[in-house]
């Protein structure tokens, strides 16, 4: 039969989800909620003639409301939530000296890669679901049933992502409760731009609007998730304050920023030196992971993103055609948003504090595990036939 390439970033298997989303918006049985990842707001403007990095949050929110979404929420909310869970998990592991280095788990293409290539190290990725999935879990199991009195099965969660791999992440059946998936469908930044155009909405002339509450509240730490190094920086801001019980006055860990493919730093947290590494692209991930596999790695935390530069350069964004000035401008847009926010540490997000008080208890609690954590699978068998040129496998389409 015909061969189907299974590409780690999903770029080769991109499916058009626009008709599915129109259909969800047209039928009135379910409460249709949308979440938007951080990297989208600094790139979608390019599809309408704005400069890369232009911050289009308010107009994007207005457009989503005009498209018919009942609640327009922010994946950033869940990025803050991810930080509380991941920083807790890291500090548990550091205390026990076990399962180090912790590897970030918010990039599904990277998770697919580690499952396929390093099955002996599946104790290392953080068990935290990605922000996309945490958002869906909270929308369906807290916001629906406990805030607006809608059962989780009657909620429909759409995500707008800079990413093609997020489409298969939301289809992973372990990411949900029983037969209700956390996220129903994911569209890319480019697909959202197409929908706005199809609807005849004049994005540039919309009045700015704000995200709905409470799943629209976020801190600057969440915005920087979209750039390589950002997840790690956000985690450090929270881990530092939790460990030291002191205020971190300068939240800018500039040593972990920038487009370089592999970055490293040593951070002094009250006398404990934490060695951190950030890799973007799967080629760089392999270099770093081979050291981990050989026992030669000195790192305590490693952030890995499959796309060179992180999600701002994701496969679902407006095409950058290899022009990394565009990617830099988008990242700069995210750091500008972070710098302009009053709250820049995830654990200071009042909506997150309220979510723990009302629903989850403590970070890393039993309830948090039930809704916000996951597990991984050995997928190395699928990769046996890989050609060796890249990480994809070829499966016969019988
Ligand atoms: Fe998706 Fe790329 Fe971001 Fe990974 S780095 S989550 S593949 S956009």
TrEMBL record:
Record-level Gene Ontology MF annotations: 4 iron, 4 sulfur cluster binding; ferredoxin hydrogenase activity; iron ion binding
Keyword set, alphabetical order: 4Fe-4S, Iron, Iron-sulfur, Metal-binding, Repeat
Protein name: NAD(P)-dependent iron-only hydrogenase catalytic subunit
